[in-house]
Amino acid sequence: MEFFVISMLNGLSYGLLLFMLSSGLTLIFSMMGVLNFAHASFYMLGAYLGYSISRVTGFWAALVLAPLVVGLLGALFERLCLRRVHRFGHVPELLITFGLSYVILELVQLIWGRLALDFKPPELLQGPAITLIKSSATGLSVVWGAAAPELCRAADAAVRVACSPFPATRAFMMLTAVVMLISVWLLLTRTRIGLVIQAALTHPESVESLGHNVPAVFMLVFGAGSALAGLAGVIGGSTFLTEPAMAATVGSIIFVVVVVGGMGSLAGAFLASVLIGVIQTFAVAFDWSLGVLAEQLGIALSPALQGSSLFKLTVSQVAPILPYLFLVLMLIFRPKGLLGSREG
Amino acid sequence: MTNFRASTLQRARWIIWSVFALTLLLAPLVFSGNLGITILCQIGIAIIACLSYNILLGQGGMLSFGHAVYSGLGAFVAMHALNAFTGGKPSALLVMLLPLVGGLAGLFFAVLLGYVTTKKSGTTFAMITLGIGELVFAMSLMVPEFFGGEGGISGNRMTEPLLGITFGPQRQVYYLIAVYTFLSVVTMYAFTRTPLGRMLNAVRDNPERVEFVGYNAQRIRYMAFIVAGFFAGISGGLAALNFEIVTAEVVGAARSGSYLLFTFLGGATFFFGPIIGAVLMVLAFVLFSELTKAWLLYLGLIFMFMVMYAPGGIASLIMMNVRVAAYGRLRGLLPQYLLLAVTALIALLGLSALTEMVYHRQLDGATGATLNFLGMALDDGNATHWLSALAVAVLGVGLFEWVRRGFAQRWHVVQEYVEQQELKKREHAV
After folding, report:
1. What is the rounded distance in angstroms from the CA atom of residue B314 to the CA atom of residue B261?
2. pTM for the complete prediction?
3. Fewest CB within 10 angstroms: A19, B100, B101, B103, which?
4. Residues from B in contact with A at Cβ < 8 Å
C-alpha cells in the first residue's frame, strides 16, 4: 500500500512537471500553429540560468528571476526570428525552432561546460515532505516532514515498521504546477488579456480589426510559454539533473504528451501528462518479464527462448519506450488524441 | 516554339546526366588519396539518403524527424545478411546485391511503421516520426540480439575474387557505391515524373483538392513514404558495406536531424538540392568537425539564417542567379558579389576568432592559453587579441550590412527587369 501511495505521488509529481512543459507548448501551438521544437531547450536554459542566479541571490529569487529571463529570451526569439518566417508557413517555423535547439544546446555547453552541474534545492526542500509509516500493529499513518527515528523503529520485535519518505522537492513541484495551472486558467478565462488571447486563437483577423495588436499578443504568449518552461526547468533541474542532455530526455516525451492529449487541447495535455508520468513511474518499479509471466502461467519455454533477451526484458527496462508505444497505439485507435477536437 | 524548347530540354537533360555519371566515374582519380576516397564513398551514400529524405520533405511536404530509422534498420539487416554468409567467404555477387537487401528492409519497415506515421500530415506527422525514431532507438539498446548492444555488429565484406573484384580495397567499394548512387538518383528523378510523384506534389500543396479529385491523400503519402524508405535502406546497406560496422547510433535522432538539416541547407525545393546538401554534410562531418569544436554552433546558426533568409536552400540561390544570367544581367552584379564576399569574409574572420577564443577558454583551458587560429596564435588571456578580434568582427559586419543594402537595391532592379522580360516572352508566345 505504501509503495502504491509513494509511487503514485512520484508519478503525479513527474506528470505535473510534464504538464508545466506541455501547457506552454500547447498554448503556443494552439495560438500560433507553431510546434516549438526548442521548448525543451528553454526548459534546460531555465535550469542552467536558475543555477547561476541561485548562486548569487539564492534559490527563491532564482525561481522568479530565471523564468523571467527565459521568457524575455523567448519573446526576443519570437520577435526577431519566428515572426520573419511566419509568412513562409508552418514547416519553416518548425525548422527554425529546430535550429534554435541546436544553438541553445551548444551555447549551454559553451557557457556551463559539458558536465552535470551540482544544482541543489534549498535547505527547506531537501528533506522529505511527508513520511508514510507502515506498522504491522497499527496500520498506515502519515507524518509531516521526516519521521522521528523512534517511530521507524519497532519497539517490539514482533511488530514490523517501514518508513517511506516522499521528497519535499517533489511536493513543491506538485504545488507549483497546481498553482501555475490555476493561475493560467484564471488568466485565460477571467482577465481581459486572457479573453483577447482566446479570441486570437480562433479569429485573429477579427481581433486585429477590433484594434488589438495580435502580433504583440503572439509575442506575449510565446514569451509566457517559454517562461513556464523556464520555471519547470528551475524546479526540474534542482530535483533531477542539470546536464546538457536534459533537453533531449524530456523533449521527445512532451511531444508525445501533446500528440496523445490531442493537439492544442490544454485539458488533454494535462490528462496525458499525468497518465504518462504515472505509467512511467510505476513501470520502473516492476521487474516482471515475459519469461516470469510464462513461468507463472505454467508454460514451459525452450532454453533458447529463456535465454533470449526479449523474454528476459523486464517492465522496468521497457519503461523508457512506454510513452512512444502509447503514442503509436493512440494513433491507431484514436487518431485525434484523448481530448483533441481536430483531425489533421 | 514548344518543340524547340522540348528538344533543348531533352539535350540539356542528357548532358546533365552524362556529366553526373562522368563525375562519379572520374572523382576517385582526382581525389585519389585515402581521405579523398573515404569522403567520396560517404558522399555517395549521403546523396542517396538525402534524396530519399527529400521525397518526404521537398516533394511531399512531410517533415520527418526519424528518417534515420529506415536507413539504419536497412544497414542492420544488410549487415546480418552479410554475416549469415561468412561461413565461407561471401560471393562478390552477394555483396553487390547487399544494398538491395538493405533497401528491401527499409521498405519493409516503412510499410510497417509508415502506416501509423502517415495517418497524419503537417506538424503531427513530424511529432510522430520523432516518437517512432525515439522508440526504435530505445529498442536498439533493449534487443542486443539484433542491434548488437553498445558495440554494434560488424562484418567482413571481403569476397572470393570475381573478375578481380574482392571489395577489399576502398576504391572497389567506391565504384559499387557510385553505381548504386547513379541508379538511385536516376530512379528517384524518374519517380518525380510518375503520376504518383506528381500527385505527391499535389498532396503537399493542396491535400483538400486532391481528395476532391478522388485520390486518397493519406494513401499517396503512405506510398511515397515506402519509396523513401526503400532508398534510405539502400543507403543504409551501402553504409554497412562501407564501414563494416553498424552501431545503434545509425538509427538515432542525431542522424535523422542531420538528414533534415543538410537536405534543407542544400535546398528542398529543387531535385538536385539534396545532392549539394549531402556533399556539405560529409564535408562538415569529416573535415569541418576536425577544424573546430564549435562546428555544431556554426551549423545551427547557418541553418537558422538559411531558414530566415533563403528558405529554398543553396539550390534556390543558384537557380535565382542562373535565371538572372539567362537574361544577361549577372555580369552587372559580379562586382557587388565580390564586395559581398570580401566583407562577409572579414565579418566571419572576426566572429569566428571570437567564438574560437570563447570555446578555447571554456573547454581547453588545460592545453594552455594560446590557440592556433588559421595560422595565427591567439591568446585568450590577452585583451588586445580580444579587442582586435572584436574590432574585425564589428568592422566586417558593418561593412557587410552597408554593401548588402546597396546590393539589395540592385538585385531588386534586376529582378524587376527579368520579370518584365519573362512577361514579354510569354505574351510573345501567346
Report:
1. 12
2. 0.85
3. B100
4. 61, 63, 116, 119-124, 126-128, 130-132, 134-135, 138-139, 142-145, 253, 257, 260-261, 264, 294, 296-297, 299-301, 303-304, 307-308, 311, 358-359, 362-363
